[in-house]
Each structure stands twice: as structure tokens, then as C-alpha cells.
Specification:
By secondary structure, this protein is α+β, with helices and mostly antiparallel strands. It has one domain: Jelly Rolls. It has 3 helices and 10 strands; from the N terminus they run βαββββββββααβ. The strands form 2 sheets. The chain has a 5-stranded antiparallel beta sheet with strand order 1-2-9-4-7. Strands 6-5-8-3-10 form a 5-stranded antiparallel beta sheet. A hairpin with a 2-residue loop joins strand 5 and strand 6. It is globular.
Length: 142
């Protein structure tokens, strides 16, 4: 194989509790670590996200601990430990935690973007800035 065809991506391992260097807590795979192919975030949360849709990527959840409820396209999914949910782009959805002690959810987007969106969105100090960030990433909130 010639050097010009070799991937610039590097294999890596993150152990329990570790995140990618220079990323927010829980980020296991990012635009930079996967060449933009996917994002994976391990989220320890007590709450979810209001009704929104992604225009540029599909979203996936895998419930590691606890229970969440996902509403999407007329469906209500009650997802417990071990459940997997697929949420295609351009279909509005919302989700929340149902278990008393929170939930641990693997949140995945294909292609990658979620880590950058969440970092910028949570750092924004006004509703107007959050709206501009959502627009930049192709997310629509209702």
C-alpha cells in the first residue's frame, strides 16, 4: 500500500471514565478521531432534549444504564438498559430520562458533529446565540 493511500486516522483505546483529549467529558469518538465518520458520547444525564430534528445526520442511542423515553414520528419508545434507538435525520424527535437516578446513554451521530454542537451550544450565553449555533449545525428546535 502506498503512503498516499494510508489513512491519517490512528487506532486508539479509551478506558472507562476516559474521554478524548481536548474534548468535553464523555466524548469517545469525534470528527477529528474518526475523520468525520461518527461521534460517540457517553452521557450520564438526568434529562434529555426537547423536540428537534437533525438535517445533516442520523442519531442513535444505546442505553447503558437507566431508562429513557423517546418520542419520534408518532412513536413512543420506552428504552431500558441494553436498548438501541435509531432516529433518522429530518424526523423530529425528543427524549427524556425516566429512571429516578438518571441514565447513561451512548449518543451517536453519523456523520460526526454532536460533540462540536453540544460544546458550542452549552457554552452560549443567550437564546439568540444558541439559535445561531443550532442553525450552523442544521438542527431545528420546535
Amino acid at each position: 500500500m502506498s503512503g498516499s493511500n494510508k489513512s491519517q486516522l490512528k487506532p486508539y483505546i479509551l478506558h472507562a471514565g476516559e474521554s478524548l483529549p481536548e474534548h468535553d467529558a464523555g466524548v469517545k469518538a469525534s470528527i477529528s478521531s474518526t475523520g468525520g465518520k461518527l461521534t460517540l458520547i457517553e452521557s450520564h444525564t438526568n434529562g434529555g432534549a426537547p423536540l428537534h430534528l437533525h438535517t445533516k445526520e442520523d442519531e442513535y442511542f444505546y442505553v447503558v444504564e437507566g431508562k429513557i423515553v423517546v418520542k419520534c414520528d408518532g412513536n413512543i419508545f420506552h428504552a431500558e438498559k441494553g436498548s438501541f434507538i435509531f432516529l433518522p435525520r429530518d424526523i423530529a424527535h425528543e427524549w427524556d430520562v425516566e429512571s429516578e437516578n438518571g441514565a447513561t446513554v451512548l449518543m451517536i451521530t453519523v456523520p460526526a458533529m454532536l460533540e462540536n454542537f453540544l460544546h458550542k451550544f452549552h457554552a452560549a450565553d443567550s437564546k439568540e446565540k444558541r439559535a445561531a449555533i443550532a442553525d450552523e449545525f442544521g438542527l431545528k428546535f420546535f
